Amino acid sequence: MPEDEYRKVFVRKLAYFMQLNDKNQIDLMNDLGLKSATVSSWCTGKKLPRMDKIQLLADYFGVEKSDLLEEKDIKTDINTYTEEEKAIIKGWRKSSEDAKRIAAIALGVESMIHRKEHDL
């Protein structure tokens, strides 16, 4: 794949993982010790990071390097969840909509519930 294609994929994937983890450019700068211009050039697609920086980002987001560079569906392997996390997921799936709203508020993710309801 040509480098400009990798850059386009990387920009989409970086934005996805930043949104998923509620991170912004300032968070990346502060948490990873990166310069503003560097992070900006990655987010705009002006530059593609070196492999060591891609690994740094992959480690930061808890994903594989390929998740940042390849067009593929991101699927979380259930085997990576702790027993407690598995129990929470099972409980969530069995919960009423009211219980889900209460849990979402407690977890600070109520905007996801509102967004889902809005889409209906």
Structure characterization notes:
- This protein has 120 residues and is an all-alpha fold.
- The protein has 2 domains: 3-69, 434 Repressor (Amino-terminal Domain); 78-119, no CATH class.
- It is built from 8 helices and no strands.
- It has helices spanning 3-20, 25-32, 36-44, 51-61, 65-69, 83-94, 97-107, 110-119.
- The chain is elongated, with a radius of gyration of 17 Å.
- The relative contact order is 0.09.
- Residues 116-120 have low confidence and may be disordered.
Summarize the structure.
This protein has 120 residues and is mainly alpha-helical.
When the domains are counted, the total is: 2
Unreliable stretches (pLDDT < 50, length at least 5) are 116-120
- Helical percentage: over 70%
CATH architectural type of the largest domain: Orthogonal Bundle
Distance between the termini: 38 Å
Global structural class: mainly alpha
The secondary-structure element order is: HHHHHHHH
CATH class of the largest domain: Mainly Alpha
pLDDT averaged over residues: 84
Shape: elongated
Radius of gyration: 17 Å
CATH topology of the largest domain: 434 Repressor (Amino-terminal Domain)
Strand runs, count: 0
Major beta-sheet overview = none
CATH superfamily of the largest domain: lambda repressor-like DNA-binding domains
Strand content: under 5%
| Helix segment tally | 8
Mind sketching the topology for me?
Elements: H1 3-20, H2 25-32, H3 36-44, H4 51-61, H5 65-69, H6 83-94, H7 97-107, H8 110-119
